Amino acid sequence: MNWRHEIKFMLDEAAFHRLYFGLKPIMYQDRHAVSADPAGFPAYRIRSLYFDDIGRKGVFDKLAGNNPRHKFRIRIYQGSPKYIRLEKKIKSGNMTQKRSCRLNREQTDRLLAGDWSSLHDDALELLRKTPDRARRQQLHLLL
After folding, report:
1. How far apart are CA 120 and CA 113, in angstroms?
2. CA-to-CA distance for 60 and 63, rounded, in angstroms?
């Protein structure tokens, strides 16, 4: 998996409009976007549930700017059980890698209940590649 640059910026509404309408003629719309935004802008819904260990290592690593750091989450796209993914995001400075695999609804429900035993090989491989074995064994839903 390749690393990619990820830099986030805060924009006010005027800057957003300038960028959106300036780039629209030369960029392709995301094929997953639908016109769900109240203002008519193409958008899609993503819901994320994050996991961390009992010591909140992921949270504190982010706040301290530690590198590399790992984040686990379940993402649901467009509110559909057809598009559920277990993702592992690795971040080092402004560089990011993402690895993911699909989950079905039953696997997701069991995972949210703390049962990691139902995961399939692709999901287990994401967890296996986590360097800190103790942390990997203590992941739970971050509320």
Report:
1. 16
2. 5
Per-residue tens of pLDDT for the chain, all 143 residues: 799 999 989 999 999 999 999 999 999 888 878 766 777 788 888 899 998 888 888 889 999 999 999 888 999 988 888 889 999 899 999 999 998 888 999 988 988 887 777 777 777 777 666 655 445 557 777 76
Q: Are 6 and 91 in contact, with CB atoms under 8 Å apart?
A: yes
Does residue 87 contact residue 96 with C-beta atoms inside 8 Å?
Answer: no
| Domain presence at residue 95 | yes
- The burial of 49, by beta-carbon neighbours within 10 Å (0-12 exposed, 13-18 middle, 19 or more buried), is given as middle
Structure tokens at 53: 């260990």
Judgement on whether residues 68 and 115 belong to the same structural domain of the protein: yes
Tell me which amino acid residue 56 is.
R
Q: Is 3 inside a domain boundary?
A: no
Q: Dump strand ranges (E) for 1-134.
A: 4-5, 46-52, 69-77, 84-92, 95-103
DSSP state of 28: P
Residue 134 exposure: Cα atoms within 13 Å on the Cβ side: 4
The model carries a pTM of: 0.76
